[in-house]
Amino acid sequence: MTEPILEATDLVKTYTMEDVEVRALRGVSLAVRPGEFVSIMGTSGSGKSTMMNILGCLDRPTSGSYKLAGKEVSKLGRGDLATVRNKVLGFVFQSFNLLARTSAQENVELPMVYAGVPAGERHERAIASLEKVGLGKRLDHTPAQLSGGQQQRVAIARAIVNRPKVILADEPTGNLDSRTSIEIMALFQELGRSGITIVLVTHEPDIAEFTSRVVMMRDGKVLSDVTQNPTDARAALANYKEGDA
Amino acid sequence: MNLFSTFRVAILALLLNKMRSFLTVLGIIIGVGSVIAMVAIGEGAKAEVQRAFDKMGTNLLVIRSGSAQTSGVRGGAGSQPTLLWTDVDAIRKETLYVTKVSPSLRQNVQILGEGKNWTTSAEGTTPEYFEIRNWTFQYGGPFNEQDVTTKAKVAVLGGTVVDNLFGNAADAVGSTVRLNNVPFEVIGVLSRKGQAATGQDADDVVMVPAGTFAAKVQGGLRQYLGGSIYVGAATPEDTRKAQAEITTLLRARHKLRDDEPDDFTVSSLAEAASARQEGTETMTRLLAGIALVSLLVGGIGIMNIMLVSVTERTREIGLRMAIGARPGDILIQFVIEAVVLASVGGLLGVGLGFGVATYLSSEFGWATKIDPQIVALALGSSALVGVGFGLYPAHKASRLDPIQALRYE
Ligand SMILES: Nc1ncnc2c1ncn2[C@@H]1O[C@H](COP(=O)(O)OP(=O)(O)O)[C@@H](O)[C@H]1O
Ligand SMILES: [Mg+2]
Known about the structure:
Chain A is of the alpha/beta class and about 240 residues long. Chain A has helices spanning about 50-55, 80-90, 105-115, 120-130, 150-160, 180-195, 205-210, 235-240, and strands at about 5-15, 20-30, 35-40, 65-70, 70, 90-95, 165-170, 195-200, 215-220, 220-225. In chain B, a hairpin with a 2-residue loop joins strand 2 (about 100-115) and strand 3 (about 115-125).
């Protein structure tokens, strides 16, 4: 068995708000091996986003350990966490989070700017990345000139441009219609086949079907953790009829 | 993140809000602009004063009767003659650094010529005086040593006197004028100097040989010299040395004891000039104060708009952090944005100052002079204001929590 790329052990996260303690995570353990495509499900408030923030090195657990690519990161400072996010991780958000009035290409170049990639190489890699998500002809378009699905593709191109080991996506299809959602899942499956590990949060069972493993959370704990045979998103698209979902 | 990309991002961010950026830096534009313009005028005035003193002769000393200390009691230096005619010769012969000496006796007179009448200042002097005071001639020439000893009734007229007596300046030479009813032959007309550094009209003068003046205009003072002695030296350095020499010499000649004060004053025009320059120095310092205040106000404006900008772009900051911007990267980004903003303001201000100065000098004929050092200083301090007042908003941005920032609506 290969070493896990993500290994969280006994994660506890407690928010303190005006004397009230909110225990968002109460001892979560999760190990993900390279190339896995994991979905995290659960009702609202079950702790999915909190979990993703810790896995994404945006937040630190109150206690517990988190190893990313074999390295303990739960105690790193802000600057080092930023470097880890830049080099090892890629993010996809529900609301896309593209820079307004900025071209698709420049949006995709942004992570490389912070990685110190020289301009020439930045342009080449951004274009290649946009071609990979099927937007090779939309390089100069700003977010306002793109549909929701296209914007999310730009965001995915941005997430993969620094060749990360893991992509983290919190409700990436939350703002998209069902057909576009399946298209995005097809893109994720394609990236998964090329070896990238993907963890996404969703509350839609239809979306979780396209992943190879479903982790169910409730009240800050893992309720179930099931490995499954994923539905092929490309095949689903071929069979897709309007009004089906 | 390299500096070039950071500058590019900063400029693009400012261009997205052109009007707001412009209004933000308006304070700096006006502050820097008015300082550049006013310094240009101040420097121009300074140069003008310097030119005026140069025309009067800079390496110049004036010796007057009466002590400086007691002048208040005595009613002003020169009110009671203590200088002797023989002092003039002594100064010429017994000093090292004095190159020229000349007496100057002054008195207001009525002058009559071609039937017209004018009140002017008559000056009795010697030929060297024209050299000491940098006088040149438009027509004719000066009187000579012989005219002084023979008390010749010849006169040299200043431009203003000529204007008031003759229709045509060229007609003046060779004609006869009457000073206090004594006829004098006009032998020269002086080139104009315009307004003297003291504010008087330097051309409102008639000059006659010193001997003639003592005999025909002033009279009754015998061995005493009823006026001042002008002394010329070669360099400013020599002028200072000559001042000391003359003081020692005259104290000895006037037989003053060690505890007695000087009964004469030796003042230099350079001193008067530097006193005038000090006035402009004070003005320059005042301007620097105004500049400081306007930059401060401009800086506060920049800080305000940067705080607004940080709040507006909270999500952008969150995103940048999520994809790998370190707190330092965010800090530098916003500091540079503030610096670019302030520097652009400074640059526009310099342009405005240039424009105003050029306009004033062409429209009103004011002398203006733009000092590159002031321009550099204005631009430098604008940039510094950007750093100073951008630091706090930038620090605030860099301390944002990426999760909170990404969730910000
Ligand atoms: N920053 C925070 N401060 C206080 N409580 C929080 C914060 N973030 C999340 N929580 C609380 O933690 C619990 C889990 O939240 P979250 O991880 O966002 O759940 P999910 O994403 O599954 O809806 C909720 O009760 C939520 O109110
Ligand atoms: Mg959530």
